Amino acid sequence: MTDFRDKLPPDLRAKQRTLVHNHNIRIMLTWVGFCSLAFVALQVLRPYPRAALTVAIVALILMVYVALVFIPKADARQCQRIGFTCPSCGKPLYDQSSIHGHKSSLITRGVCPHCDHSLVTTITV
User: Fold this and answer.
1) pTM of the model
2) Are 96 and 26 in contact (CB under 8 A)?
3) 73: helix, strand or coil
């Protein structure tokens, strides 16, 4: 599979790196927040196991909500703010990759993840 990251225009590549870095920070802060909240709940509510379990479950639900709803919206807002949008359709270009093998179409094919508009400048020799 070809990696088009190095073929992107330099300004788009710099914006993509910024977005990936900020996205990873958001994920790490979410994880640390969940672990901290669950740890504190389990320590403070040790005499009340049902209450501790309830707080831990609520913290887990909150973490999943933040990871599935808040973080993608924050990524899209940041794309709009720094101008990392498709020149054709105007939608954000950032599409996170996953540990399950999904790669962003911007990285694998050099196209917009929404409209398949090519963003890679081809150099003919």
Assistant:
1) 0.73
2) no
3) helix
